[in-house]
Design brief:
Elements lengths: L13 H9 L2 H23 L4 H17 L1 H14 L3 E5 L2 H14 L4 E4 L3 H5 L2 H7 L3 E4 L2 H9 L15 H12 L7 H18 L2 E4 L3 E3 L4 E6 L3 H7 L3 E7 L3 E2 L5 H13 L6 E5 L13 E7 L3 H5 L14 H5 L3 H4 L10 H12 L16 H5 L6 H14 L5 H15 L1 H18 L4 E2 L7 H4 L4 E2 L6 H11 L3
Parallel strand pairs: 1-10, 2-3, 2-4, 4-7, 5-8, 7-10
Antiparallel strand pairs: 5-6, 6-9, 11-12
Helix pairs in contact: 2-12, 3-12, 16-18, 19-20
Bound molecules: iron/sulfur cluster (SF4).
Length: about 475
């Protein structure tokens, strides 16, 4: 597992990282909480919202419509931002985005930068490049701040430090800040608040991401649960927003639909604590706000996805609900995935952004149970997209020959009633003899992976078709 804050997108051993995660008692305790907190909150919030399914369909169709005309909406957005005094920059990839930010910061004599939580800046490894260029960068979301002090990367889209217990957080903060704060969430938050307030006062630039961009008005919408987002975007003299091109929505009147579903999906709240709508820099008659507003529109592989069968993955509004619902994520946590985005949506996006070959385990990091799709506020067909990535693995000859042979034979058996009958007869006769009270504790060869952590249920000695035939015989048919 990576220990550097910048070893994101590292191509590590997924299986080894997952095993480590399964053996970490602290991580298992932290992840066990997800089912009763965020995942349960999502379910209850949608149950209590009348017409929630229709609302989710509507959000999905807005996304679909916008992506079909993305070039036009981006142009409209650009015009609107410029008209209101902002600047728009297009970044084709991570390197482009990094140099745009570094250049503007240098030209403006920036020394110190504060950041609000943003997955897209994690995606482009922005902190590393800003620090290498000599800027002081401070994450100001509490979870992100802890992650920065720990020298790690977020393990969850909306709860970056979900993998740590409060005792671990206290140890990190006391070690890095030379303090002696007790392992109490409130006391630790107060301590972070004191440090971060001073950073806001002296920062020359604030960097944020963005949840939505309204093409009609040029408005950046930021949704947070901490006040740091507002301080980041209003106190420093320059506000730089870095946002993926897929975050555009056509009109302001589309926004309430997304506001209703995003907070419910992410945390079970009706609305997040802060919804900030930023349209350009400070106007002459306004008391607060930055002197300059820059919007960096990041492509970084999104255009390629847009024209592919994986297009639907761009509907994602980064709520994290699929992570909370996923039985795999809830056992291995976010770091095991090796990319910035984890869980079911990460298992789709990381191979697309970062290469299928290097991330060939990810499309298989799912039981395809469909819990992710059920939790997704925009009803992304996540299992279907995972299967498409599995098919791409096969098409690009990235599957081991033994697996190809196994599935070839399996498909032949499944298609032939005669072979299927023979195979199930063999399985029921042989496996039921090897088993003790209906369970096998150890399977041979590559199948041993199954029994490494649980028993394998054996088929009964009599198959359904045996019982059926007996019924027919007894009935005299
Ligand atoms: S795929 Fe759906 S559930 Fe998962 S983060 Fe994106 S919007 Fe949320």
């Amino acid at each position: 597992m990576a220990t550097s804050p910048y070893a994101v997108h590292e191509h590590h051993d997924f299986m080894e990282a997952s095993r480590e995660a399964l053996n970490s008692a602290n991580l298992q305790t932290a992840l066990n909480r997800l089912g009763e907190t965020l995942a349960a909150g999502n379910r209850t919030a949608f149950e209590l919202l009348p017409g929630s399914s229709l609302l989710r369909d509507k959000a999905r169709s807005i996304k679909d419509h916008t992506l079909a005309q993305l070039d036009q909406y981006l142009e409209q957005l650009e015009r609107a931002v410029i008209q209101r005094g902002g600047h728009v920059h297009y970044a084709a990839d991570a390197a482009d985005a990094q140099s745009i930010v570094v250049e503007i910061a240098r030209q403006s004599g920036v020394k110190s930068i504060v950041k609000s939580k943003s997955m897209v800046t994690e995606e482009i490894h922005l902190n590393k490049h800003l620090e290498a260029a000599g800027f002081e960068v401070t994450e100001t979301d509490f979870g992100e701040y802890i992650i920065q002090l720990a020298g790690e990367r977020p393990s969850h889209i909306v709860a970056p430090v979900v993998h740590k217990t409060v005792e671990e957080v206290a140890e990190i903060m006391n070690r890095r800040l030379n303090s002696n704060t007790p392992a109490d969430a409130k006391a630790l938050a107060q301590q972070a608040r004191r440090v971060l307030r001073a950073k806001f006062e002296t920062a020359d630039m604030g960097i944020s991401g963005g949840n939505f961009l309204v093409a009609e008005t040029g408005t950046l919408v930021l949704i947070t649960n901490e006040g740091n987002g507002r301080l980041t975007t209003t106190v420093p003299k320059i506000h730089m927003a870095i946002v993926g091109i897929e975050k555009v929505i056509p009109k302001l009147s589309d926004l309430p639909i997304f506001l209703k579903i995003l907070a419910r999906a992410a945390t079970g709240q009706k609305l997040s604590i802060y919804t900030s709508m930023i349209t350009g820099p400070r106007r002459p008659e306004e008391a607060d706000g930055p002197e300059e507003f820059h919007l960096v529109l990041l492509d970084n592989g999104r255009s390629k996805i847009l024209g592919s069968p994986m297009r639907e993955s761009l509907f994602c509004i980064r709520c994290g609900a699929c992570l909370n619902a996923c039985p795999v994520y809830r056992k291995i946590g976010g770091h095991a995935y090796g990319g910035i985005y984890s869980g079911p949506i990460g298992a789709i996006l990381t191979p697309l952004f970062d290469g299928l070959k290097e991330n060939h385990h990810q499309p298989h990091a799912s039981s395809l149970c469909g819990a992710c799709q059920a939790a997704c506020p925009v009803k992304i067909q996540i299992p279907e997209l995972l299967i498409r990535n599995r098919a791409a693995l096969h098409d690009q000859h990235l599957v081991h020959w033994a697996e190809v042979m196994l599935y070839r034979h399996w498909s032949r058996w499944m298609k032939s009633p005669r072979w299927y009958g023979w195979a199930t007869w063999m399985a029921s006769r042989v496996l039921s003899r090897l088993a003790r009270s209906g369970w096998m504790q150890r399977l041979p060869g590559p199948l041993s992976g199954w029994t490494a952590s649980r028993d394998f249920p054996t088929p009964p000695a009599k198959r359904f078709r045996d019982l059926w035939n007996e019924e027919l015989r007894d009935a005299g048919e």
